[in-house]
Write a structure and sequence with these properties.
The structure is a single chain. With 505 residues, the chain is of the alpha+beta class. It has two domains: 143 residues, 2-Layer Sandwich (Beta-Lactamase); 236 residues, PPM-type phosphatase domain (Phosphatase 2c, domain 1). The chain is built from 14 helices and 16 strands. The strands form three sheets. Strands 3-2-1-6-5-4 form a six-stranded antiparallel beta sheet, sandwiched between helices. It has a five-stranded antiparallel beta sheet with strand order 7-16-15-12-13. A hairpin with a 5-residue loop joins strand 1 and strand 2. The longest helix is centred in the N-terminal third of the chain and has 65 residues. The radius of gyration is 34 Å and the shape is elongated.
Length: 505
């Protein structure tokens, strides 16, 4: 009887032991599941954090590419830096030219308006220490601060994070975060983020400063160009936002090219503008080979009664060539608005702006460009492009070679040694014809080009007609020549005819 009871007790103990082991396995499985869930949650937080950082770097890249104005760059830097490290106050001290003092050129947060513009000796404050030693500072708590020499704005802050701004020529300023939002402390991760931020911003700020050191003419010009560039950057930002909603790359690129094409069409001279020029009968034609072309022409009337006529051809075609074409149009209009009348100075200033922008774009694009100033029948021609055709009343064609009047725009920083100009008279009934090589080099199915001689024959036949009729005759003749062959280059034609009645009056 006792043996049976002992056996039953042992069986119960064995059952309990098996149950405990089963529970243990179940707990281990639950723990493993919880660990996986925690890891996934942590990974999600890390991914969200890196996504935020990636978006920040994209915004900074846009600033570096599109902004030329130093104040605009610094204000944007201050706002974005404060966001990424969650600083209550973010200051941007910049070293003055004498390198003996520094000035707060931008700030966000508490007392920002009061801080901007104040300056200190180079060794004063935590900012001064960073600028002198070219090293970052990270103070998590007030008791960690080992320096007593602080500025008024640095007093009483519970945490501080400062990094230097380094340009190509050395230190130029810094970024100073004072006080962590929510009462926490800045971390090593905050230091890493702000240092990466500063490494990109340093180049942008230094470039903006270099542009500020140009001559008065160039400075005024760059201000207008920066304004137009900012408008393009804003349009580009809208394009980017639209592209994020597209699911496939070909749709994104198609939308981007279409918007640029529309921008190009919008800045071409309108018919009503051309009709306001009483002395001249003008007709223009442009047809890009792809969605976005690299050809350019414009007709602008100045307040003094003169007319600026321009035609150019950017190497290649597509988005990059189209953007460069927009830059050229902006620079020409800006120089004209500021009253630059000397043909050589006009061409050299325009070339410098285009050269600097092409380098910033890291592009190998350049363009041929001819500029013509017209007033009361007199023509002044400068710049290297295709031959200019001057069709005299009666049909005789004079071919004006432009090879010695300029150089490729955007290829070299200074082309003053190559720029010259020639003067011509446009008499009643005479016609000036400008074109790009897409017209004369258009090929038919067997590869034969349309040619300048063919163009001249058409002009001799139709010289007595209106500018629009002459333009249509040339385009129709060219299309008959190429037949069903594909158009491989942008087509641009500008016909300018001196009205007989205008000069007689």
């Amino acid at each position: 009887m006792n043996a049976i009871s002992l056996s039953n007790a042992q069986e119960k103990l064995l059952d309990e032991l098996r149950s405990l082991r089963a529970n243990e396995r179940s707990l281990r499985e639950e723990n493993a599941t919880l660990r996986v869930l925690c890891q996934e949650k942590d990974a999600s937080k890390v991914l969200q954090r890196y996504e935020t950082e990636l978006n920040l770097m994209r915004e900074i890249s846009l600033v570096i590419v599109s902004e030329l104005d130093l104040k605009t760059v610094l204000n944007l830097v201050a706002r974005k830096a404060a966001e990424v490290i969650q600083a209550e106050t973010l200051l941007v001290p910049m070293i003055n030219q004498d390198r003996q003092r520094y000035t707060y050129l931008a700030a966000v947060g508490e007392n920002a308006e009061e801080i901007i513009g104040t300056d200190h000796k180079i060794h004063v404050g935590m900012c001064g220490w960073v600028l002198v030693n070219e090293r970052p500072l990270l103070f998590g708590q007030p008791e960690e601060w080992w320096m007593n020499n602080k500025t008024h704005w640095e007093e009483g802050m519970a945490s501080a994070l400062l990094v230097p701004l380094i340009g190509k020529q050395g230190i130029i300023g810094g970024l100073s975060g004072l006080g962590k939002k929510g009462g926490g402390s800045f971390s090593e991760r905050d230091l890493e983020l702000l240092s990466i931020f500063a490494s990109q911003v340093g180049v942008a700020v230094e470039n903006a400063r270099l542009f500020g050191e140009l001559s008065d003419l160039a400075a005024n010009l760059e201000q207008r160009v920066a304004q137009r560039t900012a408008e393009l950057a804003k349009a580009n930002e809208q394009i980017i936002k639209l592209n994020r909603c597209l699911s496939e790359e070909n749709l994104r690129m198609g939308t981007e090219l279409e918007i640029t094409r529309r921008l190009q069409q919008m800045i071409l001279p309108r018919t009503e503008e051309l009709q306001q020029i009483d002395e001249l009968d003008i007709a223009g034609f442009m047809e890009p080979a792809s969605e976005v072309g690299g050809d350019y022409y414009d007709v602008l009337r100045h307040d003094n009664g003169s007319v600026k006529i321009s035609i150019g051809d950017v190497t290649g075609h597509g988005l990059e060539s189209g953007v460069l074409m927009l830059m050229v149009q902006t620079a020409v209009r800006t120089l004209l608005a500021y009253g630059v009348s000397d043909p050589k100075l006009f061409m050299c200033a325009l070339n410098r702006v285009i050269y600097d922008n092409v380098k910033r774009m890291q592009s190998d694009k350049n363009l041929t460009l001819s500029l013509i100033d017209y007033k009361e029948g007199k023509l002044s021609l400068s710049g290297q492009h295709e031959e200019v055709l001057l069709v005299r009343a009666g049909g005789a064609v004079e071919r004006i070679d432009t090879i010695d009047l300029g150089f490729m725009v955007g290829l070299e920083p200074d082309i003053s040694a190559f720029v010259a100009h020639s003067e011509w008279q446009l008499r009643p009934g005479d016609t000036l014809v400008l074109y790009t090589d897409g017209i004369t080099e258009a090929r038919n199915a067997v590869g034969k080009q349309y040619g300048v001689e063919h163009l001249c024959r058409v002009l001799q036949k139709h010289w007595h007609e209106s500018a629009h009729a002459i333009q249509e005759a040339v385009v129709s003749s060219m299309r008959r020549h190429i037949g069903n062959a594909p158009v491989c280059d942008d087509l641009t034609l500008l016909v300018i005819k001196q009205k007989i009645a205008a000069l007689a009056a």
